[in-house]
Amino acid sequence: MRRETYPGTWEFRDRSAGDPGGFETVVVPHDAVLGTTRVDDVRQMASGYFPGGMWEYRTRLFAPPEWRDRHVVLEFEAVHRSAAVFVNGNLAARQRSGSTAVTVELDGLLRYGAENEITVEARADRDARWYTGGGIIRPVHLAVGPKVHVPLDGVVVTTPEHDAEAAVVQVLTTVRNLESGPVVRRLETMLLGPAGDVVGMDRTRVSLPADGSAEVSQRILVRSPQRWSVDTPDLYRARLQLMPQASGADGQTDVSEVGFGIRSLHLDAERGLRVNGQAVKLRGACVHADNGVIGAATFAAAEERRVAILKSSGFNAIRSAHQPMSTAMLDACDRLGMLVMDELTDVWTRAKSPQDGAEHFSEHWRSDLAAMVTKDRNHPSVIIYSIGNEIPEAATRSGNALTRDLAAATRALDPTRYVTAAVNGALFVMDGATELEPELLGDSSLDPVHEINRRTLSLEERMSALAVTDVVAELTEEAYGALDIAGMNYQDARYELDRTRYPNRVIVGSETFPTQIDRLWRLVTSNVHVIGDFTWTGWDYLGEPGLGRMHYQDDPPGNQALGGYPFLVSFAGDIDITGERRPASYYREIVYGLRAEPFIAVRRPHTRGRVMKAAPWSWTDSIPSWTWSDAGTAPLEVEVYSDAPEVELLFGDVSLGRQPTGSANRYRTVFSVPYRPGRLEAVAIRGGAPAERTAVHTAGERRRLALTAERPLVRADGRDMAFVVVELVDDDGVRATDSDVEVELTIDGPGALQGFGSAIPATEESFTDLRHRLYDGRALAVIRPSGKGRITVTAASAGLQAASVELEVG
Length: 810
What we know:
Blueprint: E1 4-5, E2 10-14, E3 24-26, E4 53-63, E5 70-76, E6 83-87, E7 90-95, E8 102-105, E9 114-124, E10 140-146, E11 148-149, E12 155-162, E13 166-177, E14 183-192, E15 198-208, E16 213-223, E17 236-244, E18 254-260, E19 265-268, E20 272-275, E21 278-279, E22 282-287, H1 300-312, E23 317-320, H2 327-336, E24 339-343, H3 361-376, E25 382-389, H4 397-413, E26 418-423, H5 425-430, H6 452-459, H7 462-467, H8 470-481, E27 485-489, H9 495-501, E28 507-512, H10 517-526, E29 530-535, H11 583-591, E30 599-603, E31 622-623, E32 636-641, E33 646-651, E34 654-660, E35 668-673, E36 679-686, E37 689-697, E38 704-709, E39 713-714, E40 722-729, E41 742-748, E42 751-757, E43 771-773, E44 778-785, E45 789-796, E46 803-809
Parallel strand pairs: 22-23, 22-29, 23-24, 24-25, 25-26, 26-27, 27-28, 28-29, 39-46
Antiparallel strand pairs: 1-10, 2-3, 2-4, 4-9, 5-8, 5-10, 6-7, 6-9, 11-13, 12-13, 13-16, 14-15, 14-17, 17-18, 19-20, 20-21, 30-31, 30-32, 32-35, 33-34, 33-36, 36-37, 38-40, 40-44, 41-43, 41-45, 42-44, 45-46
């Protein structure tokens, strides 16, 4: 069977309080939370002060009479959360998880030759430590096929043997018979190469009992295979036809198609991770599921844009934190060449948030795990499954047993990938599992874990000191023994220690502090058994507000670890929620050895003279700008990042001196520069001579709005979107970062606003409004096409001439 996008129209109403009123038409995927009013309530802090709710969706599906002899499946990739699906008023399916598919077999539930009402109910409130959104947040599919068919996700493709000359592609296909009698079918499997040409084929007979199923194995040889890798993401497709045994025989043909890649994985403590025999270090980014100004609604274009920006910023791996990755993002990782750590959950049996479903984990973990693995196991980008994140009970006897069960079940579903868990040893001692010397804890207590974010933040860098204790080593030993890779959150102090203590252990930094990437990457590259580093976090996200905000020694007493209302975003990402790279991203690229040009970041004037406190998720409050109308007369602090031994800073043609940089100086230096409008240029000095250079310029006094469509041609397929950057610039196109004017959008033509906003960390503005204030002179508008034609997007602001951009929808 093949998935098709559900063609019907969806209606929606909010049932959170009182009379829900009438329904309104919405486009699915849909985030029911994003447009709601935020509340100044500390209980809603984790979600970015968005409240929960209860929501109802409905649609009408006409079932033709011929469907009576067909098999019909309605699939919701994700409904957040506690979904209930009704067909003509009858309960058809429930799903507690907010990221596991809800699959409804409609046979016997439909009225044929008539319309059928399908209703979906969902609710969410304080059920995660970050923003999750709510409602039907991922795509809905309809699949219609014969009674004898290949079920959805019923094809598994592996490449057990391959070299430069040939590859053996094994296709395991489940064939299902819903007929009342036995049947015979012929299965034809055709392999298509990256160019679309036929590169292999096999046919076989399949006999099926009444109301039964069978698994068919086909091994097909492919000559001169093009192997999938990060640098060469070549993809193949398997196209399957299940047809009557002989021409003219009774029965309908069922068609299925699945993508795959030909590649091998090897892993050991002496040679590390190898893809197709080549050593690979994972330059990883932890990434939450929300997509900034469009919230939790998952559209293919937005997911592909994220993957493309992350890869162009130097990452080659993504960890889905902390839920299974969307199919759209996995497809993008396959196409663009990005490795994936696919994570199951943030919670097992002990709650981290009041309504996170921990009490039901024992009942449904097997089905949730199976849903993730069967959905994702044909994606060549997926190389590691993580069975959990920072599970505090993992050090207990029952937790160790559950670790073994989860790992074994994962391997049974897919023996071709590796299994890990993101373990934070500090949580084991915070949970009262043992006693430690008081000096290791500082001012932190060892009360049982209730508010896990607050406890983790209170320890911050002491997590490394805890990690190297014998107690934590012993507590984590059994859990790590059940895994293929020891995932370590903030336990980098153990990397070299474990090389001798556990010589066969392979380690990945599953979550690390972004401010320490220079030291962390040196540990990764100098230790073969450490296969990579995943920073928290690659892309900024909604909720967990203010995690990465700047802390100073002169902050008011009682300053909270997270940001108070109206803080909205984490502010810990290398890339902000609009997709713009922050200074930390360029620094990381230099540390990775992927950027030779220096980078300039200027600290905001209000930070001048203030001493930053240790905040391991916080970068300095700096941006790549030399436009500071509020600079005053005192010098500004100018950061320069470079891998060169030293850099020279120039104002115009005048040298402001040379200072050492490079690895010995943590790839950075700081110049003190009085502000004057002009050009500030940094030059890398190599071998005593000028080399690569970069510059920032002051924006002129004449300002205008500028709209730039990242892709001016978009498709009207329900999956594509247009991303329009709105900026305030001078006549030369230099962005004016010192005047964050309010902008109002107008959209003419076959398109609608999906989201509009800036990367400002604290605001009461809504992403669903057509009016928003720029931040550092920039905002992002996301436009959803509603049909073919031309869309004109216009931005206006008081005192400025309106600006427009045109989009072609084909």
